[in-house]
Every structure is written in C-alpha cells, then in structure tokens.
Amino acid sequence: MSxxxxxxTALAAALRAAVGADRVLSDRQELRTYECDGLAQYxxxxxxxxxxxxxxxxxxxxxxxxxxxxxxVARGSGTGLSGGAxxxxxxxxxxxxxxxxxxxxxxxxxxxxxxxxxxNLAVSRAANPHGWYYAPDPSSQQICSIGGNVAENSGGAxxxxxxxxxxxxxxxxxxxxxxxxxxxxxxxPDAPGYDLxxxxxxxxxxxxxxxxxxxxxxxxxxSVRTLLAAFDSTDQAxxxxxxxxxxxxxxxxxxxxxxxxxxxxxAAVHCGYPPxxxxxxxxxxxxxxxxxxxxxxxxxxxxxxxRAFEIRIAADDVERALFWKGRKSxxxxxxxxSPDYIVQDGVIPRTALPxxxxxxxxxxxxxxxxxxxxxxxxxxxxxxxxLFDAAVEGQTxxxxxxxxxxxxxxxxxxxxxxxxxxxGMDKAKYMPxxxxxxxxxxxxxxxxxxDPAGLANPGKVFPTPRxxxxxxxxxxGVHPAQEAGLAEVF
Amino acid sequence: MPxxxxxxxxxxxxxxxxxxxGRHTDGLPSQAAAGRTDNPDGPEPVRPAGEQDAIAGVPARxxxxxxxxxxxxxxxxxxxxxxxxxxxxGGGTKQDWxxxxxxxxxxxxxxxxxxxxxxxxGDLITVVRxxxxxDALAAALAAAGQQxxxxxxxxxxxxxxxxxxxxxxxxxxxxxTARDLLIGVTLVRADGVVAHAxxxxxxxxxxxxLGKLVTGAYGTLxxxxxxxFRLHPLPAAAAYxxxxxxxxxxxxxxAGTVRAAQLVPAALxxxxxxxxxxxxxxxxxxxxxxxxxRVEAAARLLGTDATAADQAPxxxxxxxxxxxxxxxxxxxxxxxVPRLLAxxxxxxxxxxxxxxxxxxxxxxxxxxxxxxTAEPERVAGLVDALRAATAAVAGHxxxxxxxxxxxxxxxxxxxxxxxxxxxxxxxxxxxxxxxAPGRFVGGI
Lengths: 490, 444
What we know:
Chain A: One of its GO terms (molecular function) is oxidoreductase activity. The structure holds two protein chains of two kinds. By secondary structure, chain A is α+β, with helices and mostly antiparallel strands. Chain A contains 16 helices and 21 strands. Chain A folds into five domains: 5-95, 2-Layer Sandwich (Uridine Diphospho-n-acetylenolpyruvylglucosamine Reductase, domain 2), CATH 3.30.43.10; 102-219, Uridine Diphospho-n-acetylenolpyruvylglucosamine Reductase, domain 3; 221-337, CATH 3.30.70.2190; 338-431, CATH 3.30.70.2740; 435-481, no CATH class. Chain B is of the alpha+beta class. Chain B has an eight-stranded antiparallel sheet with strand order 17-14-16-15-19-20-18-21. In chain B, strands 7-8-12-10-11 form a five-stranded antiparallel sheet. In chain B, strands 1-4-6-5 form a four-stranded mixed sheet, covered by helices on one side.
C-alpha cells in the first residue's frame, strides 16, 4: 500500500477539521519526534500525528482514518519496550497524552476514573491522601500512561500478589476501529455479556483506543516490610524463593539480580548492595500488621536456611527506597557497562529457574555475549539484559541470537515470550513458537470482529494478518495482506 | 438425513481420533481415553438423548461424551458438517439458567473429559480438563496444601461450567473471579478447530486473552476443554466474624466500614433473608497469629455483639434460592450497596413478593431469590424495579434462573453495553449460530 500525496493532504485536512490545526502535525521534523517508542531500534516516521483533546476528537480522528483507509496507531507516553506504538509510515499516530485529566477519585467506590494520558503514578498520588493507591506499578510508572498500561496489560514488581492491569481495570470507554464510542464495564463488577473488557486490555492497540479508564483502587497497606538478602549464587537465591512460596507466603514482591546486574547498578546509582554477592533478593511483604509480622520472620529464616550471607531489613521508607533503587535502575544501569544492550522479557515456570539460568550462562559463554539477569523471581518473569557493542562486527547479530534463544528456552519450559512488555512489533515473529497457526487464527477472529479492515495498529502482535473476509454492509478497507515492509530495522 | 445416520456419523467421528499435539498438554490422551477401545463399560461416546437430556426444557436428539480435546474436536467438526445445533453441559447444575436454546440437536457432555492434567505445586498452577468436578479438584489440590480459590455456589459443578457461567462466591473479594484465576485455555471452536490462548505461567501477555472472552460466555463461542489456573496456598487459619443487625441496609453500611479498615478480608458478606433481619460476616484468612489479631479488630469494628466462629454461618456462599425459584444477580458501585439493599427490600414489599438477599457486599455483588410460588406478574414487576435500583447505583440486574412462567415475562439480561460488538464477535466465532443459539445476551 502506498498513500499518495493527494490522499495525505486530504487526510491532513480531515484531521484538522476534526481536532483543530494545532493538534495535527505534518512537518517532517515534528513527525520525527514520534518515530519510535521505548524500543528505539525500530524507527518509522508517521505520515501524520494527531493529538486529540478528548474522546469525541479521538473518535473523529479514527473516523477520518477509516474514511481514508489509512492505518492508525495509538501512543500514550511512548515508553513501551516492544515497539507496540511504532508508527505506520502511511498512517496516523494518535497520541493520547493530551487527554490527561483525572476525572474522579472515588475511594468510597474503590475506583478512579481517568483519561488515557494520565501518568500511572499520578493515579496513586491522587488516591494516596484518601488512603488508597493504584496497584500496578511498571518500572516506568513515573512516565508511562494508563492508556498505554491498558493496551499492554502492564505488570510491575508487585503483580505477584496484586495482579496486572487487567485485574485492576473495571471499565473503559473506547473508540472502536470503526470510530464508534463504546463503553465496556464500569464501576460495578461483572457487566452482563461477553467480557470484551478482558479481551481489550492487553490487545496492544489492535482493538481500539481507550479514551476513559475506570480503575480499581487498593487500600494502602497497614504495614510494609522489605528485606534484602545476599547470596553466593542465583541457585541459592532461587532456592530461597522456592522455599518462601512453598511455605505458603505470597509476598508483594520477590526480585532477583545476578552479579553482573548488581555491578551495573552499583556503577550507576551506588546502591550499596553487599559486596561479593552472586545474587541479591529483595523480598517485600505487605498487608495487615499482624500478618506481615508473622510472615516476615519466616521469610528471613528461609533466606538464612538457604545460605543468605547477609540480610538487611529496611528500617523505614528511605532504606526501602534504597533497596529498590538498584533494582529499578537496573535496565538503564547496564548502559554504564555496555555500549548497547537488549532488554529481554520472557517467562518461565519459577521452578525451572536454576536450569534456565544455567542454560543462559552457557549461551552467553558460547557466543561471547554477556547477559545480566534481573527478574521478578516470584513469578518467573525474566529480564535478561543482553550486552553488546554494535561497533564490533558481528556482535549485534550474536546478541540477537542469544536474545532469541532465551525466548526459545522460555517456550520450551512451558513459559511465555513476554510477561509484561508485550508482543508489539518486536516479538510478532516469535508468536508461532508459542502458538499454533490455529491459535493465532482464532485470536484474529476477535480482531476481525473489532477491526475487519485491519486499520488499528496493523503489523503488531500477529506475524501474519488474517483475512477477515467480507462483512455485509461495511466499506472495503485496505486489504491487510497488503501491509508489508512496515518498519525498517536500524 | 435420517436420525440413525446422523448418529452413525457422530459415532464415526468420535471413533476416528488419535491426534496429538506435542506443543500443548491437551493432546495427551486422558487415562479414560487411553483405555477407550478396551473399555466397553465406559460411557458411550455418542448416544441418543434420553428424557434427562434437555436444556432449559428443550429436548436434545443426541448426547456426546468426548474424553479428550481431539475427540471433542472431531465431534464438533462432524456437528458442523451436519449443521447440528450444540449446547455444552458439565455437571448440569445450571442448565435451567439463561434462556433456552432456540435450537438443539446435540448435547456435548464434558463429564468424561475429566481429570487433572498437571499440578505444578512449586509453580502454583494446575491444568485440568473442563469436566473435572470442582470438589474433586479441590481434594486433589488440598493434598499439596493448595487451592483453586473459586467458590462454587452450587454443589456438583465442573470447572468448565464455572468458567462458562462465571460463577463466583464470597472469596472473590480477595482472590478475584474465574477471569482472574484462569491463565490458559484450550477451546474447540464451532468449526472443530482447536485453539489455545494464555499458557501455564501466571505472568503472560502474549496474544489475546481468549480465556476472558469465553469466561461467562455460556458456551456460545466454543467448547472449553482444558483450563490452566493460578493456585493459592490454603490458608493456615481462617475465622468468621458475624454481626446481626435489624435490616439489610444497616448490614450494607457496616460492610462499608469494614472495607475502609485494614482487615483485608477474604470475604465480606451480607445475608438478609426474606423474613427480616440481616447479618454481616467477615471472613479472615492468614496465619494463626495474624487471624487471631484481626478477629479482635473485626469484632471491635462490628460492635460488641459480634461473634467469631471457625465455621461458616449457615447458607454461606450459597445462592439465596432453590431449584424452581427465581434467582438474580445484582451489582452496584460499592458506595451504592446500602442503598441497593434498602431499595431492593422496599421494592419487594411494594410488589408483595418475598425477597432473600445474600452476597458479597465487599465487592458490590448481591444475589436475590424469589420463591417459585410467587405470582409471575408480581415477580416481573419486581425484576423491573430491581433493574431500576441497580441502574441507580451503576450496576446491573441479571435474572440467572427463573421458572418458565417468569422467564417468558422478563428480559433476563437487561441493558448490555457493547452488544453490537458482542454480536460481531459471536458472528466470527460461530457464523452459523449453532452453539447454544439464543441462550446469551441479545439473543446471541
């Protein structure tokens, strides 16, 4: 497909009519600002950018795209790590960051109603004075948007106990790929009919654009206690994690870093973790004070039983923040020890951790590519950081091989190719390793129901678009099979 | 085609399946299926329907009892080729729920499609076949100190039935509902194609979450044959703290007080029988020391005459109706729960109908029961009033079950947001409308 200049001019005019001239970008330099999301190795300059101010404008933009047969991609803060918000060269990037009002905080309903551009952390900040917070806490929570969280079904360090975005969104208003405004769910639970809300959350912008989100608020815990345990090896830290889970404890978070990740974090933020550690665990418990008190002693004992050589207990919020500082800065920190790196995101059954880590070590040694490991140990979500130097010939390719081999490991152990970053552009090609052609075909039945013309974020999630066939009474859109050469890989 | 020719075709389809799919567990033959050809005592895979084989009063012509996903797929492929209308049945505990199917030829009974495929205790997950009884599953998991934290309000139900009807009970307050616990699903489509979504790990965002789509879909999108669930440890201690009050609304207000405190209850229930009076009960789960301390805190919060017990109060987690009664699910924004309780009671008085209310005040879900002997016109009037009462608190009133005389007079589902999209989804998954046609919202 190629959009002619005439088409583009007409589309730009339609968008300006829909949202006003100041909310449409068509200048090449301005458009370049939006050429990538958080996964910067994919870059595509969009044909146009629209920044709707509200749901009505968002719907008008989508309708203009539908009328022109132009694909559109929604983008929140652009922090996604799978290229889910990578623009389409012939399409419109619809940026929701101007829709950033917290419409209501209703502690008595345990709900907040927000626009999609609202920053994740802002929801908790608004709810905190009332004694409540918004539980999903992706590492990017200071900048990522709720709309993006909904699209990606974002997780975070505390989802072991509290679940993911999908468990905390009770309603959305969305603009469908036809440009209709539809409400799903709301303040009350269990709306009658199909759980389209559950299908929509995590659909990566392929089923429509959320324009208003009703989220569940969670009571701020009475007590939070955090410990940091240092071990000689990841095997020991893994055994301690297993022992904690086996004891029936459900911590708010269990996070692990290996020696290389620790050294990167030390270099970057001087987190002061115990010297000589082959692995550190951060274990956080929260809840009613009597429960936390009873279980915290047990967790501490289980760490010692599994040969933790040093255990630190956070005395207050400041020390807790220090424990977390090393962990939360780990991705960026590897930039200090490597010119380039890939942040991988895969999931394994937690009990396979020792075996998978050994295999990652072997892969690393075989290819001469260092891998730093950071992970949500409680739920088996690995974030291997594959380090390389693009200036050295062959390293980029070898790093990508290692990164891909790690996903194969995850699938072979019954896990997933992504635990929280999403499939997006980056991992569509890996989907057939996890799902059969029939599985993917069936998922796309849902897509065809929402978006028969294939205009909403085409080329993401699925390696091969499904032909939706004719739907009586509907306009014929651009054939999905014509979508090709979507992105250049730099 | 003559009836016995159809039977032969279905039988041939059931006999000709041995496919396996190495990538997914569902292809493994179950123990029952492994002995299929050598086991003449096992249930026939396909038989003519008997008198008991009716769905909400609509008789079927044939009953199939597949023993694994492959056999179920072969049967549904044959049913598609023969243009048979199909309804799925698990334990049969909710067959009188929802609307009767417009058309029914074949019941696919899942009770032979049973058994735990995998229980990875260290990973807190299990994979089970859809026809597995919830009680049998609970017993199997308890041996490892674990549970599928999904309360079954009706005894005798299966895993698949609970998923298909999105059944839930008191502990949804802490653990969520089927949609939150289901991490992977295998389903057979209307055209007999087998599809999977999700997986065996709790954290997984690869692909669309079809598990949520089929949860609560009443078998109108496909047959769920296997489910992977997230598990929880069985709590070391549990206690119930109950306070009796004069009326339902007062119980609702007390529940609000408990929500705002730091008790983190596993359940927070209100029970207001038709005869008057009401009780609010808090279930606390955790460590022995923790629960003991929280019981004291709960009792302080609820009032001096609150009582603590190790055992659940009578009727706990059961619907407040019996077979043949009208049963509804009422939902509300949390702040609206006391008002809904008061309005529902007032509406019942106005219409001269006894109304029992019971449910999870802590999450905004109540169940309401009206005796089957009540005059249908009055019940229909009450349903309208309850629908208005729930709408006023941002909720819905759905009639889950009703005697035919009531069912004919009411809209079971009420207004449904997104219905046009739902029809499109149904059209894609079941273009010929052969799966439980007419049983779901909007005649889907």
